[in-house]
């Protein structure tokens, strides 16, 4: 069916027909009846709560990340709403955002809010250097692109509006983009040609702009100052995850097609318009939600480490073909786990194809405390990409890993790698420093669990159709 369904356990009462003598009715045991009532309430709340974690995790993560960039900055990014923040350096191990950031691009971010009025987004002409502006709604799917692939790298001015906006389009606007939610994230990724010379990348960053429509019309360039966003619930509250979910879903209501599930969540105090004070809930309902909050988040981590429902080749998990479009395919588990928890948002596959490895070629978890590894690309096996490809190392929290070289990836932009005599390429994936002549091929890892992310920007067709066979990660004897 084309509309969204989530199936819960259905409890069916069985009618037993008696053929023998009637059995005397047992006396009512009020204590037993009360216990049965508590049991079903807890089980029901737990079952609905688990599904609510799957449904709403991206929105909860995003209001927390936004808060940490806008209202109470706790990292590199620091900006008001409807304002670009540009990272003028490549990401490194100091960026603790748990979102698999890549060091092979410069990131720029703007949290948009078009509840009051639309915003005008300006992008520059960049015929040679790759860039993309990705439009993410609060549940982590992607609803629009601008940039090298999507708009040919052409300069333009684009109006971002609420889905129900019916205003007049002013002169000079090249397109109107409708946001499924009135709030979300714009993410600009700009390619790095030379890790030591970022001027070309900075020029692209300097060419983007964002402004509320009214200010754009009158040429007002005064900076924005609004930093008022949803405050996350304190961790000490009774149900912090579900309190955050209620706040997030109230700000960004689910689509109408999800109404049946929204009604079911409401039956246990979860969803848009619901209170963040759960004290009025039945104690058994509260207990079930507490269990679901813990087990649901652990379950999403388990799915992420396992790779989720996708194609596996040599223990590399291909990025799901529906990444960035998961609501369209009703794949909400993928949306919560491999798209949001271990990333934050993911590209459509025509923009980027990604493969992640949590395991070596024998199926064992990657762990730098137990040995060294190699990744050997045979001749002709090096990933095809119109822009670049790379392999990046992440820790268990999906952050970059500190190392003596400040090196987090190896790929097509790295001119110091030595190729094998037959044209292949061998990367040394290990914690200890290799011989000097192989330093260029060294991908440092921690002496603990880690994972690898292989990316190809503007990928070859074999990556898009998933016929490409990545090399296994081999553990060295």
UniProtKB/TrEMBL annotation:
Leader peptide range in chain numbering: 1-24
Superkingdom to which the source organism belongs: Bacteria
Domain DUF1214: 353-460
Keywords carried by this UniProt record: Signal
Lineage: Bacteria, Pseudomonadati, Pseudomonadota, Alphaproteobacteria, Sphingomonadales
Span of domain DUF1254: 82-212
Record keyword Signal present: yes
One Pfam entry name: DUF1254
Gene3D superfamilies: Domain of unknown function DUF1214, C-terminal domain (2.60.120.600), Domain of unknown function DUF1254 (2.60.40.1610)
Protein name as it appears in the record: DUF1254 domain-containing protein
């Amino acid at each position: 069916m084309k509309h969204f369904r989530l199936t819960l356990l259905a409890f069916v009462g069985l009618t037993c027909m008696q053929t023998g003598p009637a059995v005397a009715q047992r006396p009512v045991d009020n204590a037993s009846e009360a216990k049965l009532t508590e049991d079903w309430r807890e089980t029901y709340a737990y079952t609905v709560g688990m599904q609510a974690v799957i449904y709403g995790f991206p929105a909860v993560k995003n209001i927390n990340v936004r808060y940490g960039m806008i209202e109470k900055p706790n990292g590199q990014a620091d900006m008001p709403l409807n304002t670009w923040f540009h990272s003028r350096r490549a990401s490194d191990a100091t960026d603790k955002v748990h979102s698999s950031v890549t060091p092979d691009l410069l990131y720029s971010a703007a949290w948009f809010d078009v509840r009051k009025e639309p915003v005008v987004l300006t992008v520059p002409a960049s015929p040679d250097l790759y860039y993309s502006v990705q439009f993410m709604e609060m549940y982590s799917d992607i609803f629009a692109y601008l940039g090298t692939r999507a708009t040919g790298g052409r300069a333009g001015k684009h109006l971002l509006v609420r889905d129900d906006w019916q205003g007049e389009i002013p002169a000079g606007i090249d397109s109107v983009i409708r946001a499924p939610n009135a709030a979300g994230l714009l993410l600009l990724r700009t390619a790095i040609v030379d890790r030591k010379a970022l001027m070309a990348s900075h020029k692209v960053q300097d060419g983007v702009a964002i402004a509320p429509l009214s200010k754009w019309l009158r040429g007002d360039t005064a900076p924005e100052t609004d930093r008022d966003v949803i405050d996350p619930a304190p961790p000490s509250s009774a149900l912090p995850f579900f309190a955050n979910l209620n706040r997030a879903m109230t700000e960004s209501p689910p689509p109408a097609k999800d109404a049946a599930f929204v009604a079911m969540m409401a039956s246990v105090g979860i969803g848009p318009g619901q209170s963040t004070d759960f004290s009025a809930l039945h104690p058994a309902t509260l207990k079930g939600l507490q269990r679901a909050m813990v087990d649901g988040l652990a379950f999403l981590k388990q799915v992420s480490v396992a790779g989720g429902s996708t194609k596996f080749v040599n223990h590399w998990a291909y990025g799901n073909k529906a990444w960035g479009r998961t609501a369209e395919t009703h794949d909400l588990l993928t949306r919560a786990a491999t798209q949001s928890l271990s990333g934050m948002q993911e590209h459509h596959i025509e923009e980027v194809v990604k493969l992640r490895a949590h395991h070596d070629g024998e199926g064992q978890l990657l762990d730098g405390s137990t040995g060294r590894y190699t990744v050997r690309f045979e001749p002709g096996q090096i990933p095809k990409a119109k822009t670049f490809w790379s392999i990046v190392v992440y820790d268990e929290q999906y952050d970059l890993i500190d190392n003596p070289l400040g090196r987090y990836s190896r790929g097509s932009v790295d001119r110091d790698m030595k190729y094998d005599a037959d044209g292949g390429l061998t990367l040394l994936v290990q914690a200890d420093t290799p011989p000097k002549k192989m330093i260029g091929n060294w991908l440092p890892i921690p002496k603990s669990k880690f994972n690898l992310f292989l990316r190809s920007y503007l990928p070859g067709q074999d990556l898009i159709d998933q016929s490409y066979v990545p090399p296994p990660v081999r553990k060295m004897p």
